[in-house]
Write a structure and sequence with these properties.
- The structure is a homodimer.
- Chain A is α+β, with helices and mostly antiparallel strands.
- Chain A is built from 13 helices and ten strands.
- Chain A has two domains: 170 residues, Glutamine synthetase/guanido kinase, catalytic domain (Creatine Kinase, Chain A, domain 2), CATH 3.30.590.10; 93 residues, no CATH class.
- In chain A, α9 packs across α10, α10 runs antiparallel to α11 and α12 packs across α13.
- At the A-B interface, α9 and α13 of A face α9 and α13 of B.
């Protein structure tokens, strides 16, 4: 199977915009960190060890295709161009760390891109499941299936007292990181995010912007995940995250209602202007595009904007990143050229999804 | 004939966007100030005198319909609602001064709105001809025809030494004010207007913004007109204005070329964003709308924006004013409601004129 399959412009399944609460929760991710007994951890291992680990993990997973009814492809990082690696990072299928481990790293990707198993990243094995919407239990069940499959064939580094052993002690124990990617424009607009971040951190969870740097998350997209992996069962970690996510969803819904009831006109104006900017701009920075995409997505979610595909934010936040843009342009691009291509890509994406006759209005 | 004819939303002929240099010169106006012998001037006259003047002028003009092959309607200001007066002012068919003279004022309007003869404004008679594009000689010829017609029947106040006598000495002599309304976005963007205004004023001409207050003309629309009416022949006044207008046209064209060659991308981005704002905004002030309309008109004129009607600036600058907006809304509107209706009217106007499928781009 061609690597191109994973690099082309087609969206990954996690961008589908389906799943519970998909108007607020863009995706759910489960990550399990595992290592194999009998090999040094990646910080210290030899290329030969890395190769053997890769072969064992790949063989186990590829042989189990039928059993788990998924088709996997194994990709060696060293076989990828720098641009291709970047694109996989931007699609959240591999980590930047793996992309920078060309000698030892590989990844096993399921056809629908919902499962990626990174081999020889920080740990020997990183099982990742990425589902659209709020699907914590579903994503965990998927990861658990892969985990059991590998566990059956391969000797995991496991300690009765500490649990799964990992390169970094912050992952030791369950090796589980569960996270939800949330679109929280109304909480951001009404300046409630700082307070929420503080409360959540007291509950052993972490909130961070998933795109961009700085205090305000790019595109108002935040990732909420568990901080601790040790001293809690998997079930507790998942149910705590579920509970906190549901509370944030409720707060975001209240903030959206408040905006709609107190400033519907200015809100509508702002959201439509952003649609106008995305539809017409010839030059646009990542920051502005993210802000506009967030506005348009909010407009769709609260029913003000119609005829635009609800997956616009999920997809475009990925596709407008440097790797994708250069793949799209089929050439290397400097920052200013990227701003031009970003604008072009966004216009084309909107023309696909929008009925331009109505410009978001019902025809009389 | 119904007064409604002049108040409805249909554009006046001067908005047609035709005529010489119509990419820069929006319209040409000729105004002749005349008074009748044997009556006191409007500052001092009685209502009875006003009534007699009105009857003489109206009768003369209405009787000559066939001779001059134009059909006129006589409208008494007192018969108009305040809103209707405002709309006629906004269409440049009557002056604010006439609108505020309900007891004595009237206007004779030609069907195509190219000629309006105000009666009992500052002077007994103000003949005005408004033509699209640069048509100084044509507009003057039209005004002159009306003038000769009236002169033949009515005794003008004329002095061998001073020429036509007027209420205000600044109009005495020829009574002629010739003006061109120019769209000068590139000279404004490149900050050359202050210099040009200074030079022009030294040549006995006046430049002012025709819409709005303040130093920068709303929508980058400037009116250039002769300052002096005395001591120059009509021919000299007209040819001086023609010459200065042509020089400004040349400067504006050079500035447009310079912008296109030095900053085509940022210019294109700016112009299209303005089209996006006009197409999508739900709330828009006069100032922002004027800026965006100027941008879109420039985009059309330099060939960057297609599928948008070239008359957009001429028409919308008129239609988005308070009187028209309230007529359109069929109710009185406060300032914030006007901003909402202005946005609605602009969107509707753009949907009429634009092929929305292309959003200004050629389809692949």
């Amino acid at each position: 199977m061609s690597i191109e399959r994973f690099l082309d412009n087609s969206p990954s399944s996690w961008m589908a915009g389906s799943g519970d609460h998909s108007d607020i929760v863009m995706s759910t991710r489960i990550r399990l960190a595992r290592n194999l007994n009998g090999y040094r951890f990646p910080l210290a291992f030899t290329e030969d060890e890395a190769h053997k680990i890769d072969q064992s993990v790949s063989a186990t997973l590829l042989d189990a295709d039928e059993e788990i009814q998924m088709n996997f492809s194994s990709i060696q990082i060293k076989d990828l161009s720098e641009l291709s690696r970047q694109v996989l990072v931007e699609k959240h299928l591999i980590s930047p760390k793996l992309a920078n481990s060309p000698m030892t790293g590989s990844v096993l990707l399921s056809d629908d891109e919902s499962v990626s198993v990174m081999v020889n990243e920080e740990d020997h094995i990183r099982i990742q499941c990425l589902f659209p919407g709020l699907q914590i239990q579903e994503a965990y069940a998927q990861a658990d299936t892969i985990d059991r499959l590998l566990d059956k064939e391969l000797p995991y580094a496991f300690d009765e007292q500490f649990g799964y052993l990992t390169s970094c002690p912050t992952n030791t124990g369950t090796g589980l990181r569960a996270s939800v990617m949330m679109h929280l424009p109304a909480l951001t607009m009404t300046k409630q995010m700082n307070r929420i971040v503080t409360i959540i951190s007291r509950l052993g969870m972490v909130v961070r912007g998933i795109y961009g740097e700085g205090s305000e998350a790019l595109g108002n997209v935040y990732q909420v995940s568990n901080q601790t992996t040790l001293g809690k069962t998997e079930e507790d970690i998942l149910s705590d995250l579920q509970s906190i996510t549901e509370q944030i969803i409720q707060k975001e819904k209240e903030a959206r209602s408040a905006l709609l009831s107190h400033s519907a006109n200015t809100l509508e104006d702002r959201l439509y202007r952003s649609l106008g900017t995305l539809s017409y701009a010839r030059i646009i920075t990542t920051e502005e595009a993210a802000r506009c995409l967030s506005d348009v997505r909010l407009g769709i979610d609260i029913g003000l904007i119609k005829d635009v595909d609800v997956t616009i934010l999920n997809e475009c936040m990925v596709f407008m990143q440097p790797g994708f843009l250069q793949k799209y342009a089929e050439t290397t691009l400097n920052a200013s050229e990227r701003d031009t291509f970003r604008a072009k890509l966004l216009r084309e994406r909107l023309q696909m999804g929008e009925n331009p006759k109505t410009k978001g209005e019902e025809l009389a």
